[in-house]
Amino acid sequence: MIKTFLTLIIAFFTATVFATEIEATVVFENLTNRELTSGQLIIINTNTKIDVTSAKTFKIKLAAEGKYSFTFVAEDFSVYTTYPEYIDANKNTITIKLLNKSEGVTDFNMEALPSTLTEKSTSLEIEDLIIEGSVNFIINGLDQTIPASYKAFKGKYGIGATKENCKIAAAVGDKAKANNEIIAKFLNDKYGDNWLKELDAKPFGL
Question: How large is the average pLDDT for residues 16-28?
Fold first, then answer.
């Protein structure tokens, strides 16, 4: 009886452990004419290294949902690695962009960009997000200094700025541009278009 009980406990514990595993998908965007034949995906949190020999999509298993950091190393390429800040069953795609060697290297957490705004966001939803302080334009720059005009703008309209260098902004251009266009439409509808004159540097894509 005791042996059976212990067996059931072990079986339950094992099932629980494996049930917490999260599967993530790794996809490549090769923006060069060169074929990927050798590279390595590194899960920084666990120092796990996965050898890669092609740009085919593949899946990896993570111990549980949570925050992870990834990087990809390939001798013949510059790499942009983008991924959600928190990996779970709904957000689990790691995107590796391969560029020519001269275009710089970076790893980028997609959650650094605003992800709450969509074309379906209503004015009331955007206003709620502004109150929370989570609505930001995305602007280009070589450092992380936010221009004074954007600081004043946030004080007046509640909308701030996130600064990314030009290469990162280009790598996630569609997301950055869409974010800025949604904010611009909201401001145009509420205040007209004079607000743009208050900003020394135009937001990305506007």
Answer: 78
